[in-house]
């Protein structure tokens, strides 16, 4: 689509990012690549509202975001899957169902309690849709494999009406079979019109998924490439 869903203009943070500018189109997968310390995760968190922006402007869906946090971005239709699945993504003491529905509890509220039967029904729909290997929605999340945990984190956001999802290393720590399933899922999301920001150090993921590739180095953007007109060597050189 020619519709711009996100505009980042001269974004800087206090400790890492400097003068970041780019546009993201509706239905586009914009891949971000960089070596360790390049600032990809910091950028993801700044856009989502985790980290405070020192300078610059973010415009999402034609609305300028000034003072904002994760609650505001979530309500606007932005989701974020962290690279630290175990430390920041999963609630270890909760089961699969509770982890999946956590950001969308308002969908399951009935007066003063949460409708668990409705939660189970929706959870089972996504378990079937994404072929999550589990005997039950009540299984403790830590007992699932890394690939199935990642599917739950993706499902968590797809319960909401997202316009943009930010994925930070979505295939890290998953087996080859689950990796291909996650890649297919991300591609399908873009085909359905969702915009995707993909932060990855996996060159195969970057080249197979991205429409355009943004290379970062030392907290700045060093180069933006069209996927069809770039080589691995050029990407590494820019990083």
Quick structural summary:
The chain has 239 residues and is of the alpha/beta class. 35% of the residues lie in helices and 25% in strands.
What oligomerization state is this entry in? single chain
* SS summary, helix count: 9
Structural class: alpha/beta
Bulk shape: globular
Element-level helix/strand string: EEEHEEHEHHEEHHEHEHEEH
Distance between the termini: 28 Å
Strand percentage lies at 25-35%
Strand order of the largest sheet: 6-9-10-3-11-12
Helicity, in percent?
25-40%
Main sheet specs: 6 strands, mixed
* Average residue-wise pLDDT: 92
- Residue stretches low in confidence (pLDDT < 50, at least 5 long) are none
Strands, total number: 12
Radius of gyration, in angstroms, nearest whole number: 18 Å
Feature tags:
about 240 residues; alpha/beta; 6-stranded mixed sheet; 4-stranded antiparallel sheet; 12 strands; about 35% helix; about 25% strand
Characterise the protein shown here:
This protein is α/β, with parallel strands linked by helices and 239 residues long. The protein contains 9 helices and 12 strands. Strand 11 (212-217) and strand 12 (220-226) form a beta hairpin. Helix 6 runs parallel beside helix 7. 41% of the residues are buried. The mean pLDDT is 92.
């Amino acid at each position: 689509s020619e519709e711009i869903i996100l505009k980042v203009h001269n974004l800087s943070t206090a400790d890492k990012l400097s003068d970041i500018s780019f546009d993201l189109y509706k239905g586009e997968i914009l891949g971000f690549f960089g070596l360790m310390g390049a600032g990809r995760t910091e950028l993801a968190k700044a856009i989502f509202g985790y980290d405070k922006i020192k300078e610059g402007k973010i415009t999402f869906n034609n609305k300028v975001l000034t003072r904002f946090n994760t609650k505001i971005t979530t309500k606007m239709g932005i989701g974020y899957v962290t690279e630290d699945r175990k430390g920041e993504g999963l609630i270890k003491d909760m089961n699969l169902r509770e982890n999946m529905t956590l950001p969308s509890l308002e969908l399951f509220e009935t007066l003063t309690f949460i409708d668990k039967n409705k939660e189970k029904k929706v959870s089972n729909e996504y378990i079937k849709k994404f072929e999550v290997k589990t005997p039950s929605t009540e299984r403790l999340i830590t007992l699932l494999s890394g690939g199935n945990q990642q599917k739950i984190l993706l499902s968590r956001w797809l319960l909401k009406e997202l316009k943009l999802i930010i994925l930070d290393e979505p295939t890290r720590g998953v087996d080859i079979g689950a990796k291909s399933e996650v890649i297919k899922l991300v591609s399908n999301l873009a085909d359905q019109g969702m915009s995707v920001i993909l932060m990855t150090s996996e060159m195969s993921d970057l080249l197979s998924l991205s429409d355009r590739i943004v290379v970062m180095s030392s907290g700045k953007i060093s180069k933006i490439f069209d996927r069809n007109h770039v080589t691995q060597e050029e990407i590494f050189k820019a990083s």
